[in-house]
């Protein structure tokens, strides 16, 4: 753990957070306040990637809800098992103050921890806490978005597994980038999220964050990506390992459905036709069949026949 606070998030920013500018409105706690301390590691989370034919919705249902998982990791779940020290007590007090709506008190406690215990294992969680505070404020005051981004970027500078908030901060960074219109940065963050979750499926919140991360990736890609290159992009970015293509196929189908909602049938067809013929599976065939039916008369005859022929050749037994 580094001994100095990075210049990326200078002390003046945190001082501003503690006293300059309006406090965030108190919000009810999302999870009960518990004693924070380094305890035994959380049980391993299930590996990402549904079984053949399983939907992303089924995978998401098997994981802890995102908000609950983030609240639990903020309580110190997964930190190395060490004897609790004064840094743990200070962090617990600041977190309790935040959850009680005492934002200035919470910020001052977090800042004190950074100043007095710069090598504490709670430092990434402190920066994540600042990110969460600024992220919430930014929904009403967009000027706080830059501070949220700085806070989350500070979190991800500490490597996992010691930094249990790395995946959650990467997930939040993607949101900040997308809200600020920085689509390529959002895709880059989501690609890191999926890669990290696939590499360490037992990491804190990996199973919870990977499915919504892929859903966000589809939405961002629909804004800035090329439809006919979607499958190859998703193969590299979706967290699929080796020859697996389950996630990538599901994401192409979701992308085509989104294009249809956006009144872009031509882009939907481009995305579907770009899927490698050797990589179809039963789940994808079912979704593509429904998409072919939905596209219907929105396509000219030649394009409709091209799509129907491809589907029949790859999905219908001969």
Written overview of the protein:
Residues 1-8 and 20-58 have low confidence and may be disordered. Helix content is 60%, strand content 0%. It is elongated. It is mainly α and 318 residues long. It has two domains: 1-21 and 63-199, Tetratricopeptide repeat domain (Serine Threonine Protein Phosphatase 5, Tetratricopeptide repeat, Alpha Horseshoe), CATH 1.25.40.10; 225-318.
Which helices and strands, and how do they pair?
Elements lengths: L10 H9 L36 H7 L3 H9 L11 H14 L3 H14 L6 H16 L6 H11 L10 H14 L3 H17 L6 H19 L5 H8 L8 H16 L3 H9 L8 H14 L5 H15 L3
In short:
With 318 residues, the protein is an all-alpha fold. The protein contains 15 helices and no strands.
Q: How many structural domains in the coordinates?
A: 2
For this structure, what is the CATH homologous superfamily of the largest domain?
Answer: Tetratricopeptide repeat domain
Number of strands: 0
The CA-CA distance between the termini, in Å, is: 61 Å
CATH architecture descriptor of the largest domain? Alpha Horseshoe
Low-confidence runs (pLDDT<50, min 5 residues)?
Answer: 1-8, 20-58
Describe the main β-sheet briefly. Answer: none
* Basic shape: elongated
Which percent band covers the strand fraction?
under 5%
What is the rounded Rg? 22 Å
Mean pLDDT: 83
CATH topology of the largest domain: Serine Threonine Protein Phosphatase 5, Tetratricopeptide repeat
Decide which structural class fits the backbone: mainly alpha
Helix amount = 55-70%
Helix and strand element order = HHHHHHHHHHHHHHH
* Count of discrete alpha- or pi-helical segments spanning 4 or more residues: 15
- CATH class type of the largest domain: Mainly Alpha
